[in-house]
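Thread title: Can someone regenerate the structure for this chain?

I was given the following input by a collaborator and told the matching structure tokens would be attached. They weren't. Posting the sequence so someone can regenerate them.
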Amino acid sequence: MKIQLTSFRQSALGIRRGILPWLVLATGLGLTGLWCHQQRHFTSLEHERIERDLAEAISGAITTHLQTNIAVLNAVAGLYDASKEVDQQEFNAFYQALNHGGETLNGIQGVGYAVVVPNGNITGFEQQVRRAGRPHFTIKPAGSRPLTSAILYLEPNDWRNQRAIGFDMYSEATRREAMQLAAGTGEPALSGPVRLLQENSIRPQIGALLYQAIYRTSSEGFNSSQDRFNRLRGWSYSPLRMEDLIQGALTTVKDPALQGTGVLIYDSSRNRANNLLFDNLKLADSPQLTHPTWLEVSIANRTWVIGIQLDYRKLNPEGWSHALLLQALLGVSLSVLAAVISQQLIRNHQSVRQALRREQDASRERALAGTVFDSSPMAIVVTDAQGVILKVNQAFCQLTGYSELEARGNTANLLRSGRHDNSFYEQLWKAILSKGYWSGEIWNRHRNGQIIRHELSITAVHDEQQQTSSFVGLLRDVSERYQQEEQMRFMATHDQLTGLANRTLLIEELTRSLALAQRQGCGVGLLFIDLNRFKPVNDRYGHSTGDALLKAVAERLSNTCRSSDTLCRQGGDEFVVLIPDAPSIGHLQTLARKLVTALEQPFLPGPELPMEITISASIGVARWPDHASDADALIEAADTAMYAAKLQGEAAIAIATSIANSDSPS
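Best answer:
Regenerated them for you:
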């Protein structure tokens, strides 16, 4: 019976030995497959992220280009607001003034004015223009329409643009849709794709037109969209060649991933081939368009669809790469090797004395542990159960500045920085005693007094009776990584030019202040500041001078505001001051007057500012709960008040309309 039991045990042991190599192989192959799958998934997500970031960067670049066009069209509207009539000579002089130095209108195909023919009297209007010195002026196409427009001026007045003079853009459906939108809203509007009248057979491009409506007595305000049409005088507009516009925008995108990347841009929908505005690699409707990322963006009251397709040789959309294939091959090879080694180990002779083997194993482990301890790049400290240091390695001495002789016999408290309270250490030891380990980041003090950020892991070592006999701590310096993370957090919430809070941080602080104000029953104030005469400084002396002036303005505002207030650069030449405890409107007006007075003082020349500059500011004042019920409404109220202040003249202060007044019927 005893012989049979021994034989059974040997047979079972042999079966387990035969299964083990296959188990090792399966485990290795499974881990290799899981690793490759995760790497493929990460690479695929990274590919999509890069494409989406590129689409957003391109959208921003195009919008920036169009903002220049819009600013020019607004200037034309201002010209007509200031004059009853503008003749061709005045329009040309105005255009030349805008293009001072030949750089302001870079990338703009043209600047024009299309007039609404009064009362639809085409013949009378043609005769009027001819008498003014343009004997060949004719409105095209012929025929009467409910509303007739005519291109009256178009600069530069070259042979291309002269072909468009007299054309009634309102007679064509695509142009008319954008012109109606601009006239009905007062906002700039971009048309759908058209063929520009200036195009000929030499390198023709898809075009579009950007419109800004011009009204009679626009300063009196409008009651409705129909009121806008009744007082419509015409449109300032700019013809745009899409390929030139988009290529110009792409040159400002500094992302190296753009090199060799396919960029497709559609108007409104990519389901219609006629909506294609731009295709740098001719990918549309081709088999090469396999993995694009699409992004819808709103540009000048029009929706564009931007598609980005990276070169698959840079980053495969499916996640495959030569490195990943090599890793997979290496993983398979190691799995097979591990299985073979396991099989060979199992086949080794098992009759060696167990006691000797255990002793040999123990000796080997002690030697390995000693080697690892002494040569480890990680700082290691061993303490007894009471926390008294028993042993440290060389890496610990280098990391902390304490020699082994200085550290031994002291407790780990010699590293305390004073930045953590007692509750932190109580939670740390509670975790060690309950779970047997603790891991996290901690501030420690170097021997020279420097405060350093360490990544610390503490493990409890138990004896045969499961009692804690010692603790082992592993330390690593993560100060540089921590500083980088702090810098990234600062950059995400602050303006890079002035160092002030950006809009993201403003929203966070405003939301926090409103929540606190609701509990404490106090008010929250918001001052919306816009600089006057800043744009001429920027245009005349360049962006470097403008940036230096913005930094000087930020410094002066910071010196005027309290430390408890939040000063934010909203963007461009707009600043916002958040006052978390605003007792009254009068208090806010007093602060606003201080800010206006501070900004009226000349900015003297300095290392970055080449000359003395004088500007002023218009300030809109809003207070919660008098003018708004939430954060977005408070920002909007202050913004609206600021525009009201600008209408009053320079250095003006305007108070937002109260909620009660805004809710009353007009």
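The longest helix spans residues 2-81.
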